[in-house]
User: What shape does this take?
Amino acid sequence: MADVFKIAVLPGDGIGREVIPQAVRVLEAIEDEISGFELETHLFNCGGEYYRKHRREWPEEAESFSKEEADAILLGAVGAVDSSGEEVRLPDNNLAGYNIVIGLRMELELYANVRPVRLIPGVPVPVKKESESIDMIMIRENTEGLYAPIRGKLSRGRRIDLATDVRVITRFASERIARYAFERAIARKGAPKDGVKRVTCVDKSNLLAGCQLFRQVFTEVSQTYEGIHADFAYVDSFVQWLVRKPEYYDVIVAPNEFGDIITDLGAALQGGLGMAPAGNIGSDKAMFEPVHGSAPAHYGKNSANPVAAILSGAMMLEWLGEKNKSKSCLLASETVHKAIEEVLKDGKIRTSDLCWGEWAGIKPSSTKVMTDKIISRIKEIVSER
Ligand code: IPM
Ligand code: MN
Assistant: This one.
């Protein structure tokens, strides 16, 4: 009997509403082509736009289904603007929808935010590199750091005069994320430069107490993993090395807020935010989402690159496959990756963000047409097997 997985689908706002339906089409296509698993998708509106209409960020059923019933969550992006172009905000001034993203990460303890950075041939990049030289995963601690909800504002007179965000680093979370990083390194083939399995701890331990603890715990954990090179970098120097010698990196681990920043640079190295997927992984649950935001200015044009969302769906299949020992889910994930690679290599069908450099002369395809091409490639790959 086929494994059935329940998936909460939360497109959210802006281009999330364009790319997530396309990712779902790809998931439905691959489910049709490869037997052995079924995805039961449950779609819910949520985010800033939902908040504008209903004064809450998501319906109750969306919240309870995502937190209690779903095997995995596929999220688009949150953040909306109103008719006058103002960002939709909550009474506490945070962007409406953020409690969904951050809330799910915290409440479901999705402690590892995994962001692969891989350059696929056929993708133009701002820093020219051979595609084989960029293949790493960035792992961002996802439950504490500057994102710990310990913050406040002090008003004196009629204006806010002081604001604090407390950065929390614990031994527990540092150890958990370091172990996760080393385990991922075991399963990989090492850095493109030298084939060495390497985990780089990115921090600011020359100054910050929390980073000193993070690095110390990382070092202790590294001593229990023989044959993996434990590597260290301060975050400021790391960003320049990342651009200069990306081939050196294999697995990177960083505290939450540094992870947020370096993964946008990672996205640029692999061709932009339209190419960058992510998975928020816990010990039992997981949520997958493209690294990009809701990009309200681009919404409604059917022009956003769906690849980051589709790759996030493929990461979801891989995670489900590994967790449930489902060979068909793993094969489905591989097949989606292969189809994307072949479509990009072929070159002619691509969204506008990928039409520059060598591909400047190509007429951009829409979000939907690019997805159609990926789906037809999936069908061809399966029928050729
Ligand atoms: C990300 C985003 C989020 C973050 C926002 C939407 C809260 O930038 O996933 O990288 O800061 O983590
Ligand atoms: Mn970010």
